[in-house]
């Protein structure tokens, strides 16, 4: 009888332990989702028309080998196109008028097919190298992303990540979560990199651009523009 009672107690203990373990694992795997749900409801911009109260187009700005020019940006119903000119090395940029210190930022982007150029999805505030969180996508078929955080006048964190797809062929989702204790980068919902720490000390504008950096070699004509299909952001 005593043996049966011990076996029953052991069996009950194993069941309770298993339930506690499963709940713990579930909590760990769902932590990003829980943090995501703490953001306010997203503002979703589908660009059915270009809302100039919320967004602005960079008029003229020297960057890399050329300029960011307003004429290279072409809003259309349901999208914004940024055209690249390989002969003059000119590109374009759009940015929010509002600034954000923390939040979640996501964009559906199909990059230009323009080797030697990049598409940036990032947060920025002047001066240079002090307040910036970047996803930079190389505008070529066999591509990669460069993830960078600038802080206090220098690179605080940086890594390259090869892309398992051709970003010039279709839309993909790029996301940045800037939190007081962590900054995360996701592509198509998959966590690529997370850096612990507070890297934001000033509100930053959300920007998207395509341009020719001086540290890349222009390898041919741009055969397609960068297409921005949708952008969402929340605090």
UniProtKB/TrEMBL annotation:
It comes from the Bacteria. CDD domains: Glyco_hydrolase_16. It comes from Bacillus badius. The keyword Hydrolase applies. Its EC number is 3.2.1.73. Residues 33-235 form the GH16 domain. Gene3D superfamilies: 2.60.120.200. This is Beta-glucanase. The keyword Disulfide bond does not apply.
């Amino acid at each position: 009888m005593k043996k049966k009672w011990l076996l029953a107690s052991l069996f009950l203990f194993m069941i309770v332990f298993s339930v506690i373990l499963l709940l713990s694992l579930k909590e760990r795997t769902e932590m990003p989702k829980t943090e995501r749900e703490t953001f306010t409801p997203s503002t979703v911009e589908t660009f059915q028309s270009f809302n100039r109260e919320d967004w602005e187009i960079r008029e003229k700005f020297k960057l890399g080998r050329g300029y960011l020019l307003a004429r290279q940006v072409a809003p259309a119903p349901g999208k914004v196109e940024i055209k690249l000119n390989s002969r003059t090395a000119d590109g374009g940029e759009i940015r929010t008028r509002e600034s954000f210190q923390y939040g979640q930022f996501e964009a559906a982007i199909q990059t230009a097919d323009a080797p030697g150029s990049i598409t940036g999805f990032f947060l920025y505030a002047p001066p240079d190298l002090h307040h910036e969180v970047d996803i930079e996508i190389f505008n070529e078929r066999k591509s990669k992303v460069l993830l960078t955080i600038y802080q206090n006048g220098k690179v605080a964190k940086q890594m390259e990540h090869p892309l398992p797809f051709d970003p010039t062929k279709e839309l993909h989702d790029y996301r940045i979560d800037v939190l007081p204790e962590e900054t995360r980068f996701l592509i198509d919902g998959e966590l690529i990199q997370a850096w612990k720490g507070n890297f934001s000390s000033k509100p930053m504008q959300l920007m998207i651009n395509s341009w020719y950096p001086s540290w890349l070699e222009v390898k041919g004509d741009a055969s397609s523009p960068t297409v921005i299909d949708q952008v969402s952001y929340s605090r």
